[in-house]
Amino acid sequence: MIHSKDNSKYYSWGNSCESWVLNDSTNLSVKQEKMPSGTAEKLHFHEVAEQVFYILKGEAIFDINNEKFSVKAGESISVQPQSKHFIANESQDELEFLVISSPSTHNDRIEIEK
Question: Per its UniProt record, what Pfam families does this chain match (predicted)?
Answer without folding.
Answer: Cupin_2
